[in-house]
Amino acid sequence: MLKVKITSKALEARDIVSLELLSLDGAELPAFEPGAHIDLHVLPGVVRQYSLCGSPLLRHGYRVAVLRDPASRGGSAAVHDVLNEGDIVTIGMPTNLFPLAVSPHSLLFAGGIGITPILSMAQRLSRDCASFELHYCARSRERMAFLQEIGNSLAPDQLHLHLDDGSPEQRLDVQDILQRSAPGSHLYVCGPAGYISHVTDTARRLGWDEARIHFEHFGNAAAAHAGGDRPFRICIASSGRIVEVGAQEPATVALARAGLHVPVACEQGICGTCLTRIVEGVPEHRDMYLTEREKAANDQFLPCCSRAAGDLLVVDL
């Protein structure tokens, strides 16, 4: 954990604010690579992950940008309404689950606030004189963060804007873009779940292998699933203690109520902070962190969102 100071808070686009974070003593912050994120403790007990959208070369500070979510569970609302310049906040060390790979050409797709990790990627690729193109999509220009900065740092043929309220000829045609890409190209996509699915499903339909498809989600619709849930029990393997999990609560909440602390951050099955080993039983996986192969093994689950497929899970806590 690191203590940093918010030295700047700025409105970057409609409903998007950025925070500049500097160390308290002016020392350099830990290095990071494009695609990395940090945990930001926005309120006591409220930790959220935000992509670092500054240049990895600028070690004196970090920058994050946050979209106000109308259905905020406390994170984005606090960033917009509670945190201010001069505040001291706690952050975690940079973690990268969305790294750049070496490839002959990179296709970067950003939908709305998904520009945050993609921006650092574009700046790194531009600095390295690598072959790439950025496709930035939004409902309108007023919702595009860092647009001037991107325009100043990228060549005209590298940046492509796609606006829902724009002319038909500039609309995003993922299939055409992918079919025209150089052999061996890699694609990177971040944004709303539907946007990510559209890009990645198109790539798979065109025969792209998974090793060349990279994406990062900001939310997990399956984690918010509300219908058909039922109570189940968790048995602690080391003690035999039984914890009852209600139909309308996450397992992490039930465990905390019983005095068993499982570290959590995103609470949506995205970051992997609460990953817990399963000794016996079959989970109902709802996370976006484990691979399909890892889920099929049924030897671990994320209790912040996943549940039991049966009546009992025995876990290693």
How would you describe this structure in keywords?
five-stranded parallel β-sheet, Elongation Factor Tu (Ef-tu), domain 3, MnbB, Ubiquitin-like (UB roll), 18 strands, alpha/beta, 2 iron, 2 sulfur cluster binding, six-stranded antiparallel β-sheet, Rossmann fold, iron-sulfur
Low-confidence stretches: none
Individual helix count: 7
Averaging pLDDT over every residue, what do you get?
91
- Give the oligomeric state: single chain
Q: Which CATH architecture of the largest domain is right?
A: 3-Layer(aba) Sandwich
Q: Which series of helices and strands comes N to C?
A: EEEEEHEEHEHEHEHEEEHEEHEEE
E-strand count: 18
Tally of separate domains: 3
Q: Tell me roughly what share of residues is in helical segments.
A: 10-25%
User: How much is the radius of gyration in Å?
Assistant: 21 Å
Q: Return the CATH class of the largest domain.
A: Alpha Beta
**Largest beta-sheet details:** 6 strands, antiparallel
Shape: globular
For the largest beta sheet, what order do the strands appear in spatially? Answer: 4-3-6-1-2-5
Determine the CATH topology of the largest domain: Rossmann fold
